[in-house]
Amino acid sequence: MAAFIQITDTHIVPEGELAYNRSDTAAALNEAVASINAILPRLDPVDCAIITGDLTDYGTPAEYARLKRILAELQLPYLAIPGNHDVRDAMRAAFADQAWMPEAGPIQWHRDFGDFSVIGLDTLVEGSHHGMLCDEGLAFLDRVLETLNGQPVVVATHHPWMHSGVVAMDNNNLRNGGALLDRLEAYGGPARMISGHVHRTLTTQIGKVTCQIAPAPCHAVHLSHQAASINSLIMEPGGVTLWNWHDAPRSCLVSNVIPVGTFKGPWPFYG
Ligand SMILES: [Fe+2]
Ligand SMILES: [Fe+2]
To answer: How far is the CA of 251 from the centre of ligand 1 (A)?
Structure first.
């Protein structure tokens, strides 16, 4: 039974700095890594972590180096796609030692977990906060989907296409996500779109495609549906998301948001 853990929006900043002068993103990621390492012995085997963008806040080599130092403690291999806060060339250079990192072009990959496949796509438009899939990315998606023969598929992008209701975030979502959804609607098997970017936990169903947005280990985006609201961060509890395959009673991929941190308990309910 295959599984992965989604970590998203780690927003690592240089040593000694806080993101937005408020959020200790490195401490949050350290805590997330510790939380994951602590829970792994109690889980069915987990294959890897997938980091769905905004790995750093400014995309500098020093930030990627700091991120890698923190991730070196994670007891899982990992793959990653970029978000709007990343810089493609710096990210490529930082992870040039990883087999999933393409030598050129969009940072995209396909990982076959056996029970399902994950296709990671690059939605970064450098200099902008919104996301777009490029022609090369859509062509890559088409090529991979053709080979999957109806195997359940998860497409991971930093930017979601589904609306969150937070107006400032939805204004900067995946602008051509309809092109992705059309392909998944036409695909001959179960399909999901998973993302980050919104720093909140959201789920919807668009046609036959389940769409989910995962929380960040660090700050959240303040929930407001008012267009006039100032887009703000809030220190709600952080999280990572376990995705694990269940074979019975009907096979399906289950998402499980795991809060980051240490908590009182556990205690047996009785005795
Ligand atoms: Fe983010
Ligand atoms: Fe983002």
So the answer is: 32
